[in-house]
Amino acid sequence: MTIAKRNRSVLAALASISLLAMSACSEDFETMEANKEPGSDSIAAMIAGNDDLSSVEAVLETAGLVGAFDAAPYYTVFAPTDNAMEALGDDFEGEEGRAALAAILREHVVPGYLTREDIANAIEANGGSVEMATMGNGTLTFSMDGDALRVAGTNGEDGAVIESEMLGTNGVVFPVDAVLKDVTLAE
Predict the structure, then answer these.
(1) Treating both helix axes as pointing N-terminal to C-terminal, what angle do 3-23 and 116-126 enclose, rounded to 10 degrees?
(2) For a FRET experiment, which of 20, 23, 65, 142 has its CA 20 to 30 Å from that of 118?
(3) Does this model's pTM top 0.85?
Protein backbone atom coordinates (compact mmCIF):
# COMPACT_ATOMS: atom_id res chain seq x y z
CA MET A 1 0.00 0.00 0.00
CA THR A 2 1.43 3.39 -0.94
CA ILE A 3 1.83 6.15 1.62
CA ALA A 4 -0.85 8.24 -0.10
CA LYS A 5 -3.35 5.37 0.05
CA ARG A 6 -2.47 4.68 3.68
CA ASN A 7 -2.90 8.37 4.54
CA ARG A 8 -6.28 8.44 2.81
CA SER A 9 -7.29 5.31 4.74
CA VAL A 10 -6.21 6.85 8.04
CA LEU A 11 -8.04 10.10 7.27
CA ALA A 12 -11.19 8.23 6.23
CA ALA A 13 -11.07 6.20 9.44
CA LEU A 14 -10.57 9.35 11.51
CA ALA A 15 -13.48 11.06 9.77
CA SER A 16 -15.75 8.05 10.37
CA ILE A 17 -14.66 7.76 13.97
CA SER A 18 -15.17 11.43 14.63
CA LEU A 19 -18.67 11.39 13.10
CA LEU A 20 -19.66 8.40 15.25
CA ALA A 21 -18.19 9.92 18.37
CA MET A 22 -19.69 13.34 17.71
CA SER A 23 -23.17 11.85 17.29
CA ALA A 24 -22.91 10.45 20.83
CA CYS A 25 -21.75 13.73 22.39
CA SER A 26 -23.71 15.72 24.91
CA GLU A 27 -25.59 18.86 23.90
CA ASP A 28 -23.04 21.07 25.73
CA PHE A 29 -20.19 19.59 23.68
CA GLU A 30 -22.14 20.05 20.42
CA THR A 31 -22.86 23.68 21.30
CA MET A 32 -19.20 24.29 22.09
CA GLU A 33 -18.05 22.67 18.85
CA ALA A 34 -20.64 24.57 16.78
CA ASN A 35 -18.95 27.81 17.83
CA LYS A 36 -15.52 26.54 16.75
CA GLU A 37 -15.57 27.57 13.11
CA PRO A 38 -12.48 27.69 10.93
CA GLY A 39 -11.00 31.14 10.61
CA SER A 40 -10.29 33.00 7.40
CA ASP A 41 -6.50 32.69 7.63
CA SER A 42 -4.27 30.14 5.92
CA ILE A 43 -1.81 27.97 7.83
CA ALA A 44 1.03 30.34 6.88
CA ALA A 45 -0.95 33.37 8.10
CA MET A 46 -1.91 31.67 11.39
CA ILE A 47 1.74 30.82 12.05
CA ALA A 48 2.83 34.35 11.12
CA GLY A 49 0.17 35.79 13.43
CA ASN A 50 1.32 33.80 16.47
CA ASP A 51 4.15 35.50 18.38
CA ASP A 52 5.32 32.16 19.81
CA LEU A 53 5.82 30.59 16.35
CA SER A 54 8.22 33.10 14.79
CA SER A 55 10.95 30.43 14.43
CA VAL A 56 8.62 28.19 12.39
CA GLU A 57 7.57 31.23 10.36
CA ALA A 58 11.24 31.88 9.57
CA VAL A 59 11.74 28.24 8.52
CA LEU A 60 8.73 28.50 6.17
CA GLU A 61 10.11 31.68 4.63
CA THR A 62 13.70 30.46 4.34
CA ALA A 63 12.70 27.10 2.86
CA GLY A 64 10.27 28.74 0.41
CA LEU A 65 7.29 26.88 1.90
CA VAL A 66 4.98 29.83 2.64
CA GLY A 67 3.13 29.32 -0.65
CA ALA A 68 2.57 25.64 0.11
CA PHE A 69 0.88 26.57 3.38
CA ASP A 70 -1.12 29.43 1.87
CA ALA A 71 -3.18 27.20 -0.43
CA ALA A 72 -4.88 23.82 -0.59
CA PRO A 73 -4.62 20.93 0.13
CA TYR A 74 -5.40 20.64 3.81
CA TYR A 75 -2.63 20.03 6.32
CA THR A 76 -2.40 19.75 10.08
CA VAL A 77 0.80 21.29 11.43
CA PHE A 78 2.25 20.57 14.87
CA ALA A 79 4.38 23.70 15.06
CA PRO A 80 7.19 23.78 17.63
CA THR A 81 7.13 26.93 19.72
CA ASP A 82 10.06 29.33 19.71
CA ASN A 83 11.30 27.87 23.02
CA ALA A 84 11.26 24.37 21.49
CA MET A 85 13.11 25.55 18.37
CA GLU A 86 15.77 27.27 20.51
CA ALA A 87 16.77 23.83 21.78
CA LEU A 88 18.11 23.07 18.28
CA GLY A 89 20.85 25.64 18.73
CA ASP A 90 22.54 27.70 16.02
CA ASP A 91 23.89 24.85 13.88
CA PHE A 92 21.37 25.37 11.08
CA GLU A 93 22.99 28.10 9.01
CA GLY A 94 23.47 28.08 5.24
CA GLU A 95 21.94 25.82 2.60
CA GLU A 96 22.52 22.58 4.51
CA GLY A 97 20.95 24.05 7.63
CA ARG A 98 17.89 25.26 5.75
CA ALA A 99 17.42 21.79 4.23
CA ALA A 100 17.68 20.21 7.70
CA LEU A 101 15.13 22.64 9.14
CA ALA A 102 12.73 21.93 6.25
CA ALA A 103 13.16 18.18 6.97
CA ILE A 104 12.39 18.81 10.62
CA LEU A 105 9.25 20.74 9.69
CA ARG A 106 7.99 17.99 7.34
CA GLU A 107 8.04 15.63 10.34
CA HIS A 108 5.56 17.96 12.06
CA VAL A 109 2.95 17.97 9.25
CA VAL A 110 0.25 15.40 8.55
CA PRO A 111 -2.14 15.54 5.62
CA GLY A 112 -5.74 16.53 6.26
CA TYR A 113 -7.76 18.84 8.46
CA LEU A 114 -7.62 17.26 11.92
CA THR A 115 -8.95 18.97 15.02
CA ARG A 116 -8.05 18.10 18.57
CA GLU A 117 -11.41 16.37 18.93
CA ASP A 118 -10.80 14.29 15.78
CA ILE A 119 -7.52 13.05 17.21
CA ALA A 120 -8.92 12.47 20.71
CA ASN A 121 -11.85 10.52 19.24
CA ALA A 122 -9.48 8.36 17.18
CA ILE A 123 -7.41 7.63 20.30
CA GLU A 124 -10.54 6.65 22.22
CA ALA A 125 -11.84 4.47 19.37
CA ASN A 126 -8.45 2.79 19.07
CA GLY A 127 -8.37 2.06 22.80
CA GLY A 128 -5.08 3.87 23.31
CA SER A 129 -2.57 5.65 21.14
CA VAL A 130 -2.96 6.32 17.43
CA GLU A 131 -0.26 6.85 14.80
CA MET A 132 -0.30 9.12 11.77
CA ALA A 133 2.18 9.34 8.90
CA THR A 134 3.92 12.68 8.42
CA MET A 135 4.75 14.46 5.17
CA GLY A 136 8.39 13.51 5.87
CA ASN A 137 7.57 9.77 5.90
CA GLY A 138 7.86 9.59 9.67
CA THR A 139 5.21 8.79 12.23
CA LEU A 140 3.62 10.85 14.97
CA THR A 141 2.06 8.96 17.88
CA PHE A 142 -0.82 10.56 19.75
CA SER A 143 -2.06 9.67 23.21
CA MET A 144 -4.10 11.15 26.03
CA ASP A 145 -2.62 12.06 29.40
CA GLY A 146 -5.78 12.81 31.37
CA ASP A 147 -7.41 15.60 29.37
CA ALA A 148 -4.14 16.59 27.71
CA LEU A 149 -3.36 15.47 24.17
CA ARG A 150 0.26 14.36 23.72
CA VAL A 151 2.29 13.76 20.59
CA ALA A 152 5.64 12.04 20.12
CA GLY A 153 7.88 11.73 17.06
CA THR A 154 9.05 8.63 15.19
CA ASN A 155 11.71 7.65 17.69
CA GLY A 156 9.75 8.79 20.73
CA GLU A 157 11.37 12.22 20.71
CA ASP A 158 10.05 14.55 23.39
CA GLY A 159 6.32 14.06 23.77
CA ALA A 160 4.70 17.46 23.48
CA VAL A 161 1.53 18.62 25.16
CA ILE A 162 -0.88 20.20 22.70
CA GLU A 163 -2.83 22.89 24.51
CA SER A 164 -4.56 24.79 21.71
CA GLU A 165 -5.45 24.66 18.05
CA MET A 166 -5.87 27.28 15.36
CA LEU A 167 -8.44 26.43 12.69
CA GLY A 168 -7.92 28.00 9.28
CA THR A 169 -9.06 27.87 5.70
CA ASN A 170 -6.62 25.18 4.62
CA GLY A 171 -5.70 23.42 7.81
CA VAL A 172 -5.07 23.33 11.51
CA VAL A 173 -2.05 24.52 13.50
CA PHE A 174 -1.22 23.10 16.94
CA PRO A 175 1.60 24.87 18.82
CA VAL A 176 3.66 22.16 20.55
CA ASP A 177 6.29 22.50 23.23
CA ALA A 178 8.93 20.25 21.65
CA VAL A 179 10.69 19.47 18.39
CA LEU A 180 9.47 16.01 17.38
CA LYS A 181 12.33 15.09 15.07
CA ASP A 182 15.96 14.60 16.02
CA VAL A 183 18.00 15.99 13.13
CA THR A 184 21.69 16.77 13.18
CA LEU A 185 23.82 18.18 10.42
CA ALA A 186 26.40 15.92 8.76
CA GLU A 187 29.94 16.94 9.60
Answers:
(1) 90
(2) 65
(3) no
